Write the structure tokens for this entry.
Amino acid sequence: MNWVFDENSPIYRQIAQMIKNEILNGTLAPGSKIMSTNEYATFYNVNPATVQKAFRELVETGILYKQRGIGMFVAEDAHERMSFEFRTRFFTEVLDPIVDQARQAGIPLEAVIRYLRSKEDESP
């Protein structure tokens, strides 16, 4: 299978993000063993060194851990770490610009909050 990668980001980062997404959506549970470097390389049709670079990044951030001679596993607290990271990024990358734009437009933050609450009521 040839996977289509985004050309705007390094492939190893995209592979790391795919593994993170599988952890966040529960496909990869804490403590579960993940595919080997060669299995990922074959699956995504990439060089094994690219997968190793993705693994190295995930190990350095504590998302995965290696058991010598056995394989690579999802850290027990990986989901919590990534949820915290996601929330932090959401506030800084999504909400902070909205707050800045609201201030520039003279929209009181209470009006923004009321709007967000009205959207919450609309959700299924």
